[in-house]
Amino acid sequence: MTRDGDDLRVRVWRGGTDGAFQDFRVPHRPDQTVLDVVTWIQRHLAPGLAYRFACRVGMCGSCAMTVNGRPRWTCRSHVADVANGGRLDIEPLANLPIIRDLVADLTPFFEKWQGARGRFVPSAGRGDPTAAIAPSEPRRRQADLAVECINCAVCYAACDVVAWNGDYLGPAALNRAWVAFNDRRDGAPEELLRAVAGDAGCHGCHSQQSCSRHCPNELDPSRSIAGLKRAGLPAWLRGGDGL
Amino acid sequence: MIETRDTDILIIGAGGAGLFAALHAHDAAPELSVSVAVKGLLGKCGCTRMVQGGYNVALAPEDSRERHFMDTIVGGKWLPRQDLAWRLIEGAIERIHELENELGCFFDRNPDGSLHQKAFAGQSFDRTVHKGDLTGIEIVNRLAEQVWARPIQRLEEHRALALIPAVGESAIAGALFVDIRTGEFLLLRAKAVLLAAGGGPTMYRYHTPSGDKACDGMAMALRLGLPLRDMEMVQFHPTGLLAGPETRMTGTVLEEGLRGAGGYLLNGDGRRFMFDYHEHGERATRDVVSRALYAEMRAGRTTPNGGAYIEMAHLGPEQVTRQFKGMVKRCADCGFDLAGGRVEVVPTAHYMMGGVEFELDTSTEVMGLFVAGEDAGGVHGANRLGGNGVANSTVFGGFAGEAMAEFVAGETTHREPDRAALDRAVAAAEHPLSAKPGDLHGLRERLEQLMWDRVGIIRDRHGLTAAAAELDQMTSELQQTGLGHQARAFNLAWHDWLNLDSQLLLSRAITRAALARENSRGAHFREDHPDEGDLTASQFTSLRLDGEERLDLAMKEVEFSIVAPGQSLIEGEAAAPPGKAAR
Lengths: 243, 583
Fold this sequence. Notes:
Chain A is an alpha+beta fold and 243 residues long. Chain A has two domains: 7-104, Ubiquitin-like (UB roll), CATH 3.10.20.30; 107-237, Alpha-helical ferredoxin (Fumarate Reductase Iron-sulfur Protein, Chain B, domain 2, Orthogonal Bundle), CATH 1.10.1060.10. Chain A has helices at 34-44, 79-82, 107-115, 138-146, 154-158, 160-164, 171-181, 189-196, 210-214, 221-237; strands spanning 7-14, 20-27, 64-67, 70-73, 87-91, 98-100, 103-104. In chain A, β1 (7-14) and β2 (20-27) form a beta hairpin. The longest helix of chain A has 17 residues, at 221-237. In chain A, 51% of the residues are buried. With 583 residues, chain B is α+β, with helices and mostly antiparallel strands. Among the domains of chain B are: 234-350, Flavocytochrome C3, Chain A, domain 1, CATH 3.90.700.10; 432-539, Fumarate reductase/succinate dehydrogenase flavoprotein-like, C-terminal domain (Methane Monooxygenase Hydroxylase, Chain G, domain 1). Chain B is built from 14 helices and 18 strands. Chain B has helices at residues 16-28, 65-75, 82-101, 135-148, 216-224, 257-260, 286-298, 317-323, 325-333, 389-409, 419-434, 440-454, 461-479, 492-516; strands at 3-12, 34-37, 55-56, 117-118, 128-129, 153-155, 158-165, 172-179, 185-195, 228-229, 234-241, 264-266, 308-311, 342-352, 355-356, 369-371, 539-545, 551-557. In chain B, the strands form four sheets. In chain B, strands 1, 2, 6, 7, 8, 9 and 16 form a seven-stranded mixed sheet that branches. A four-stranded antiparallel sheet of chain B has the order 15-10-17-18. A four-stranded antiparallel sheet of chain B has the order 11-14-13-12, with helices on one face. The longest helix of chain B is centred in the C-terminal third of the chain and has 25 residues, at 492-516. At the A-B interface, α1 and α3 of A face α3 and α4 of B.
């Protein structure tokens, strides 16, 4: 913990994959997030520091970084909760290419989102009434448990399997597929199960649950992935088309 | 030599308007190349994503288009362009079905499976469709997924610098960008361009919008010579989080529902003050509560950081935590106890009702240039109803996509860009890289304080006149304030400078329009002209930038094309809670 008035000692990643930490001292304030620390450094000490943020309040997930070894939203991480003896190490998200300094390239993350068929396939049109789905329907409850993902990629950065297997679709994409699977309006559930089958899909998950421990929204992608595994099983047993 | 590329349809912005335009343009004419350029990441920046409240749409049998329309017109203090407001209300009905049935949004349901519609301030019917208090995330996530899935060109972290006209005619040729990651310029030529960069009054000390917002779109429109209307109309949300200086938490919204549920606002002495100002107390509309809170601040009855408190504990901390889970957690992450303690709040600049004048099909007076979303003006008049914002961007964004596809079908070639205009835009953007280093951060703080003090919630001629002079001074100061840092790639200081350039121009526009309006309507309150004026002779402000960077202002008559003051299309009172309205 730090005392008000003491400087924070902050190490910030500079450069690309072969970069290095740079040391800064930043005034500590009672109301201060990690994003505020990064902002202060860029405004006062290192105008060329590259970082990314947008909404400031945990709605967009643009500002996720590695803070003292752990992926987090920096806008909602209070310094008092995360600084270790007044020290902060701030790096870009792991498991993604680095653009520069604290900015990760999220392209692979969103490609895999599509790879898991992370999108709705309609079965009705704008001229039709909205589907009468009671909030108490069991499948809707499953979807509701998983739907509030803001695609910040914190789970993806925390996932051991992603680190080992570059093809693995990852927890966020599979969690999205689970939401779509439980949406009975979706017009192509078989296609969806095909997309997430296999070692790059849900069967790649080793249930380490790092995703669920790190999700800032307290979602449980590990549970969603287990659900996909179960859902795919009957089709696989039927022989079908090799789900 | 600047890299030049061609696309058929160029969309600037990727919020509700830009994403809908991309989908509709592509679906209407899949053979056309559609490009979306956005300052941040696609689907992850901008303000649609931040919508908490919901989406106004007349669906229930007891509700009607006429009722939604009257709420919008009366709420907008008779200033909205009525045919645009009507188009919004009609379009919202189809758009909500499209969002649900084709894009996969799932909004909150009643126990019988029908869409739940909640109450929202200033409306005579409970018509706001929502997904909890995170409606915008559901809408933008589902939209972005559909855009990713289509062969639509994405230019992420590409900042638009200028709209480039065609040589010798009033038509658009494309837009100049800087790729934020590399710092390189890009000229994208297009047969049709949509301006949907969003507004965002971030030039005020306390503001709600996403940090990427800087009014770039409206600034580019002014510089192209387009007229902007209703620029004095800046909506303030009464309860922004107040967490002290140098934290980006300050200004972010604590949701409207806290007051609606019975939350108290207390001044620095710990006393409830809203009933001193209005019979509805804390449940009065945004503008009334913002003005009252600001008046307490001016009287010096403030909290340690200079605002007021919101207090919920009398409703039971467990109940508050259940009902406002997201808000309570957000405050807790930031070190504040919303459920059981007091949290400091301050009014915060939220939305710009004004924007580029446009037609029903989203076209502007420059051929080939279209506009939608917060960059467009005229739908909301003097005040925007909560829930009409995301409806506006998605409805008109979709129309823009179709209009551009149709327009491009008649265009055989790309128009030739005006090289002189392009050179000027490049020189303007490069200027800070060579100018002598100065205190950019200090200049931005001075602008924010000036706008807050003089052009904010309560205005008068004296303060506005002083502000106009100081803004001119700051504008020339910015030109003398360079950057110490020369590298162009991901140079945030450069973008801070460019942001300030846009913010200063729009600050001048707001101030000029606020001086011209000598009455008080909706979001605009003149202490020296506190009455609303003659509604039947309502006028709106219309601004243009001339060749010498001066703002020309005209007052134009509002056309009551559907309904005139004193008339109504519905039984009972519009823009008042349902209890008061005859059904």
